[in-house]
Amino acid sequence: MYRIKTLNKISPAGLSVLDQTRYTISTDVENEDGILVRSADMHDYAFPDALRAVARAGAGTNNIPIDRCSEAGIVVFNTPGANANAVKELAVCALLLASRKISDGVAWVKEQAAGADVEQAVEKGKSQFVGPELSGKMLGVIGLGAIGVQVANIATKLGMTVFGYDPFLSVDGALSLSRLVHRAMDLETIYKNCDYITLHVPQTPETKGMFNEDAFHMMKGGVRILNLARGTLVNDDDMLAALDSGKVACYVTDFPNGKILRGKNVVAIPHLGASTPESEENCAVMAAQELKDYLENGNIQNSVNLPTLVQPWSGVSRLCIIHRNAPGAIASITGVLSKDGVNVANMTNKSKKDYAYTVVDVDSRIGESVADTIRALDVVLRVRLLNH
Ligand SMILES: NC(=O)c1ccc[n+]([C@@H]2O[C@H](COP(=O)([O-])OP(=O)(O)OC[C@H]3O[C@@H](n4cnc5c(N)ncnc54)[C@H](O)[C@@H]3O)[C@@H](O)[C@H]2O)c1
Ligand SMILES: O=C(O)[C@H](O)COP(=O)(O)O
């Protein structure tokens, strides 16, 4: 039986991917083999010995201690693109919220409900909620991944002139991007020209606090900013000053905190980007499939810390070895096998930055003693032995 711990509510459609005869799934299972998580903060999480994989049902993995997982030989998965449509739709809503004073207007109408003549009050008071149209304005999209591409493309259909910036644009991203979207080669082009700017980058050491005083200084007066990516991308003190001075006309954020809520013209959404039944299901199913394929077959797809490696079974036993990406690592592993007289039927090795993964199918059924000898190698972080 595999033990799976859920640290957030995971869509039942995802959980049903894991056969109940082989998987125990609960919030309090101990010494778990795998974890299914959404945004729960895992930075102080003590890894049990059995833990082999963490699957994030969603895109952002900044809630997971990736380096610590890598060193412990724990594979971290996410579900790229599975919630992109939901975020794109919220981004369209956020563009309108940033422009048309809808949330202030709605709150004001509710206040009129106690009054005698609501119709009259509405017609008299509506002029305070005038806001510009999107058509004909310039939108800057920072980060052209699964979400940014969709936001950029749909904004062209709203009549906006769209500039996209992504120095690491993937081939898939480029192929999905509308030809109407202009490619900005630097952030300055976005900052200087755009009336609306929307963030769709992950939280990394490079992007943390990227919207700061220097960035606001370069932006157009009255710019409207959308942040459906992560709160930490914005320096809150600098944003509050920019809102106060009118440099930023409106800040729509899916990541409110006590400080930013005090700012004027802040529209705060309670992290609803991926909160649709469709994307919750997509993410959960994809995360559960990734976890299952890794636990049962050792295959890795959509991992943020280890390479993609899918190998069809061709032997009797399979060794799944997570190791450092270091010279001589493969030779030392195959050296153990040849010394023990084990014949390799198929073998694949892939690497990602400092880490590598080797899957070895062997013709004969081998025991844990061979795995233990490989475990003892300096370069090796984790070894699993699977039998077909
Ligand atoms: N509000 C929500 O509920 C919600 C939902 C999904 C994702 N997100 C956030 O949105 C982020 C993006 O999601 P995605 O699915 O599009 O991810 P993605 O990995 O498909 O795209 C991210 C893109 O950002 C680019 N990028 C990285 N660093 C950059 C930089 N310094 N400047 C410009 N571009 C840079 C990458 O090249 C990539 O194309 C996630 O990491 C997550 O933080 C939020
Ligand atoms: O990165 C993500 O996928 C989003 O922020 C969604 O987070 P959630 O799964 O907690 O809604």
UniProtKB/TrEMBL annotation:
Top EC category: oxidoreductase
Domain of life of the native organism: Bacteria
GTP-binding as UniProt keyword: no
Pathway: Amino-acid biosynthesis; L-serine biosynthesis; L-serine from 3-phospho-D-glycerate: step 1/3
EC identifiers of the protein: 1.1.1.399, 1.1.1.95
Keyword Metal-binding: no
Family: Belongs to the D-isomer specific 2-hydroxyacid dehydrogenase family.
Alphabetical list of Gene3D superfamilies matching this protein: 3.30.70.260, NAD(P)-binding Rossmann-like Domain
The reaction(s) this protein catalyses: (R)-2-hydroxyglutarate + NAD(+) = 2-oxoglutarate + NADH + H(+); (2R)-3-phosphoglycerate + NAD(+) = 3-phosphooxypyruvate + NADH + H(+)
Name of the protein: D-3-phosphoglycerate dehydrogenase
Entry's Gene Ontology molecular function annotations: NAD binding; phosphoglycerate dehydrogenase activity
Protein purpose: Catalyzes the reversible oxidation of 3-phospho-D-glycerate to 3-phosphonooxypyruvate, the first step of the phosphorylated L-serine biosynthesis pathway. Also catalyzes the reversible oxidation of 2-hydroxyglutarate to 2-oxoglutarate.
InterPro entries for the chain: ACT-like_dom_sf, ACT_dom, D-isomer_2_OHA_DH_cat_dom, D-isomer_DH_CS, D-isomer_DH_CS1, D-isomer_DH_NAD-bd, NAD(P)-bd_dom_sf
